[in-house]
Amino acid sequence: MLSGGRIKIVDLLKTTELDRDVVVKGWVRTKRGNKNVAFIALNDGSSINNIQLVIDVAHFDEALLRRITTGACICAEGKLVASQGAGQGVEIQTRSIELYGAADPETYPLQKKGHSLEFLREIAYLRPRTNTFGAVLRIRHAMAYAIHKYFNDRGFFYLHTPLITGSDAEGAGAMFSVTTLDLNNPPRTPDGKVDYSQDFFGKPCNLTVSGQLEGELGALAMGQIYTFGPTFRAENSNTPRHLAEFWMIEPEVAFYELEDNMELAEDFLKYLIRYALDHCEDDLAFLQKMYDPELIERLKFVVDNEFIRLDYSVGIKILMESGQKFEFPVSWGLDLQSEHERFLVEKHFKKPVILINYPKEIKAFYMKLNEDGKTVRAMDVLFPKIGEIIGGSQREDNYDKLKQRIEELHIPEKDVWWYLDTRRWGSAPHSGFGLGFERLLLFVTGMANIRDVIPFPRTPKNADF
Ligand code: 4AD
Ligand code: MG
């Protein structure tokens, strides 16, 4: 067994085999006690729960015990017994302790008192050692696993789309460029522009904002694919819901129309939330207790209720007739702000909403035009507390219409000719969507700031660690 010579605390706390010798290794959360007996709460990251080490002080070197403080890493050996105290089932009557690494209380920043999330962001390299981030990161792992399981069980193929691209999928124009040119002295063309033909890729390139366009190539060959990788947006939006580097899951399915796409999105989200309820009980209970008293109720509510499906035009009408004062104006043709999305979801319907058929002007070039010539088969899934959690659409599969849209928007054909070619040969109706992984995690963990659901957040003016 590749156990590192220890039993994980998560397994110890479940065991029914008592009165046996065990070895545990982990980091000290707290130490308390008196002259005769000391109690150490030990955590090894496998669970939110600690194991209690009971120490008969007389049998230990006093200097060693003094160096075992909050944050220290130790190996302890002893007998697993039923606990005398309340709050835990088992504890260890400790026979020996080896100190792997001390943590000087004068300098170690994570003392046992609760720290603010703002402070923890400044020391993000240490935050995985806190209860909060342990819980969030275990849930993050569980959700990543559940995503792969969901698609694998349904015959989707995981397609690896490139992170470096020469195209701008969303037409958002907020991209990070990738270059090896000397920025202080770049080569120039005769007319004074930067000469990208001398750059690494021989043309301007950037970090991808989405794997969708390449994902469509996969769907139009393999039927149903999904991507799951990092995406990058250089928008300068300092909000609790935006990151410059975030992870996105993008399924893309041949022969799916918008209705099928909505079914898939709803089923997928409910599966993931149910998975968290079934597999992350202890961590969710901790986050509920510490941050969000309605967390578990909210998760169950989403799993148990049908999402509302609504035309953008009807949504706009509801907002305009609501009598509600909004910071941003509402009228047909304008994009919805988070305050509008949350009004529909939290106040009006009190359920998740899938908003469809948006005006073509506020959506990307690749969305399928409706018969009215004004709206496209877009869908945004709107969630309580989050606003938009998923964005997707049926894709324009008609070559002429897609080409016309590309021309109208002045998208250089040299960037997207290969994408257009999919509509030239063997085109098919197809649809897909993108789920923001950290938006999902915001919802599932109940955390309020997206910086607190990713181990190392990248936001404007912040790329530490
Ligand atoms: O709505 P978006 O921009 O859609 C796309 O990128 C499409 N290519 C998806 C597709 O159809 N395959 O982004 C999709 C989702 C959003 O709904 C949101 O959850 C998340 O990605 N997202 C962000 N998450 C964190 N930080 C940001 N800056 C985000 N921008 C979008
Ligand atoms: Mg969107």
Layout: helices, strands, pairs:
Elements (H helix, E strand, L loop, with lengths): L8 H4 L7 E14 L3 E7 L7 E6 L5 H6 L5 E10 L7 E12 L15 H6 L8 H23 L3 E2 L5 E2 L11 E2 L26 E3 L4 H11 L1 E9 L12 E10 L3 H22 L1 H10 L4 H10 L3 E4 H9 L17 H12 L3 E7 L15 E9 L3 E8 L4 H10 L4 H12 L5 E7 H9 L20
Parallel strand pairs: 3-5, 6-10, 12-13
Antiparallel strand pairs: 1-2, 1-4, 2-3, 4-5, 7-9, 8-9, 10-11, 11-16, 13-14, 14-15, 15-16
Helix pairs in contact: 4-6, 4-7, 6-8, 11-12
From the alpha carbons, calculate the radius of gyration and give it in angstroms.
27 Å
Helix content: 25-40%
Count of DSSP H/I helices: 13
- State the end-to-end CA separation: 33 Å
Number of beta-strand segments:
16
Mean pLDDT: 95
**Small molecules (ligands, ions, cofactors) in the structure:** 4-amino-1,4-dioxobutan-2-aminium adenosine-5'-monophosphate, magnesium ion
Shape designation: elongated
Low-pLDDT stretches = none
Strand order of the largest sheet: 6-10-11-16-15-14-13-12
Counting helices, strands and paired strands, the structural category is: alpha+beta
Report the sheet-strand fraction.
Answer: 15-25%
Oligomer: single chain
Pattern of helices and strands? HEEEHEEHHEEEEHEEHHHEHHEEEHHEH
Report on the biggest sheet.
8 strands, mixed
Outline the structure in words.
The chain contains 13 helices and 16 strands. By secondary structure, the protein is α+β, with helices and mostly antiparallel strands. An 8-stranded mixed sheet has the order 6-10-11-16-15-14-13-12, with helices on both faces. It has a 5-stranded mixed β-barrel with strand order 1-2-3-5-4. Helix 4 packs across helix 7 (281-290) and helix 6 runs antiparallel to helix 8. The longest helix has 23 residues, at 131-153. Bound molecules: 4-amino-1,4-dioxobutan-2-aminium adenosine-5'-monophosphate (4AD) and magnesium ion. Residues 169-170, 210, 212, 233, 242-243, 246, 248, 250, 388-393, 432-434, 436, 438-439 line the site of 4-amino-1,4-dioxobutan-2-aminium adenosine-5'-monophosphate.
